[in-house]
């Protein structure tokens, strides 16, 4: 279902979310006291998205440090809309004509977070799938390429989603209505990847799972993705996501920060090349800030080194300093 921009605003109101952009950054008010007023809609590694109140003016005070209950209401009036934000006895009102959505898309193909230990390569995939899914759900299918729609479908593939390899702890998860539901599109996509990898054994097991997608069978499939005999399927899926994300630009934080970040990335690539010369397989991942709030987190770079055991594949994570 396609949401209008007013629907998107109402969604934030229902969630109790109101986070205005700093006035001296992107909210520009003209000499008549009107202009564009932005609030954050969705911020993740795929997109930085804002709802823009057009021809807006505001009155009152808003305390972004307020820790009590914030009451938010939207009223439709003949001349437009008014958003009413109440914090105890304090009111902040925004009068505006309409709402537009402003999106900035970025390359997320090498973004990786390593918050939970164990099978980090599978948790990276879960994270990347989840952020593409969020982009699709919150902004719309039109925000995704055809390749990304395939990636997003894996949110409903229990052997690789947060049912099996969560990238964050349960308290930070936004649960699906039926987290064990298998999407036919997702299973077909994984069969496509398995076929491309020449892994006929896994392809057959995926077909059987699709015919009987029980929780028990999902857990069996999840264990198969650890096996070193199926490692190529996981590596091809990683490559698929990397190439799908590469159609978007990398984030830029200004010359000084970009140069500092590049030094870390170059150091990681050098380490990766050393490992590969020694006959090992490695991948470079990074954590990066948002352009809107570039001081929010540190820029970190990691080398993920593949390790094959007797039965399973695992990885070792090296942080580049």
What key phrases describe this protein's structure?
321 residues; seven-stranded antiparallel beta sheet; 8 helices; alpha+beta; three-stranded antiparallel beta sheet; single chain
Layout of strands and helices, then pairs:
Layout (H helix, E strand, L loop, with lengths): L4 H10 L13 E2 L5 E9 L3 E14 L9 E8 L2 E8 L2 E7 L1 E8 L14 H20 L6 H8 L30 H13 L3 H12 L3 H10 L6 H15 L9 H23 L4 E6 L12 E9 L4 E8 L1
Helix pairs in contact: 2-3, 2-7, 4-5, 4-7, 5-6
Ranges where pLDDT stays below 50 over 5 or more residues in a row are none
Radius of gyration: 22 Å
Structural class: alpha+beta
- Measured between the Cα atoms of the first and last residue, the distance is 45 Å
Question: What composes the largest sheet?
Answer: 7 strands, antiparallel
Helix content: 25-40%
Approximately what portion of the residues adopt beta-strand conformation?
15-25%
Shape: globular
Number of strands: 10
Structure annotation, total helices = 8
Element pattern in H and E: HEEEEEEEHHHHHHHEEE
Q: Mean of residue pLDDT?
A: 93
